[in-house]
Specification:
- The longest helix has 22 residues, at 164-185.
- This protein has nine helices and eight strands.
- The strands form two sheets. A five-stranded parallel sheet has the order 2-3-1-4-8. A three-stranded antiparallel sheet has the order 6-5-7.
- The protein is an alpha/beta fold and 213 residues long.
Length: 213
């Protein structure tokens, strides 16, 4: 099965995507991570991304679509993907439909983690992220997990953009761009809106119940 998991920054979608991928043997795809890996590996696409960023731009939809095509048509990942935070706009949503249908695939489940901005704000301001594996923790609620983290506490840092002004802008920008995506998907029978303000275990349980039906 293929799954889309949507949610604003700080909604917990990365955490849930990781849990789902482990439980159901799926490949977690984050476009941000794909782009970073291309840059690190100094591929032709990576050079295109760096060139765009150096001019103050972002990776184009064309670049993202090319990367996704490499993944979705790979026999190791085919029909076993969870898209973490993608698509981000209506153009990407339509292109993803075309990309999958051209390879006789489809989306089976779409989850949107809905979280009020005041909760998002609290979560992000208390968030620390591992520079090595990219896993995030809440420095107030995850003290035990932080001490047991496999990479070691020395890699856990606050992201530079995890400040109040930045997060408000990111939240508003995300909701503005994603509104059309949610409207695009909301009429589909396999679209589910989940209360993302609940505890991680509660959210995971609700998603798992839907996936096991």
């Amino acid at each position: 099965m293929n799954i889309i998991l949507l949610g604003s920054p700080g909604s917990g979608k990365g955490t849930q995507a990781q849990k789902i991928s482990e439980k159901f043997k799926l490949t977690q795809i984050s476009t941000g991570e794909l782009l970073r890996n291309e840059i690190i590996d100094k591929t032709d696409i990576g050079k295109e991304i760096e060139h765009s960023i150096s001019k103050g731009g972002f990776a184009t939809d064309d670049i993202v679509n090319r990367l996704l095509k490499k993944i979705t048509t790979n026999t190791n990942f085919r029909n076993k993907i969870i898209f973490d935070g993608y698509p981000r706009n209506i153009s990407q949503a339509k292109n993803l439909d075309l990309l999958l249908s051209s390879d006789n695939q489809s989306i089976n489940y779409i989850f949107f983690l809905k979280v009020p901005r005041n909760i998002i704000e609290k979560r992000i301001l208390e968030r620390i992220t591992c520079e090595k594996c990219n896993k995030s923790f809440n420095e107030i609620n995850n003290k035990i997990e932080i001490k047991k983290h496999k990479c070691g506490e020395k890699y856990l840092v606050k992201r530079k953009d995890d400040n109040k002004e930045s997060l408000i802008n990111r939240y508003d920008e995300y909701m503005k761009k994603t509104k059309s995506v949610l409207e695009f998907y909301s009429t589909r029978s396999y679209y589910y809106e989940i209360d993302g303000s609940e505890k991680i275990e509660v959210i995971s349980s609700k998603i798992e119940q839907i996936l096991r039906v």
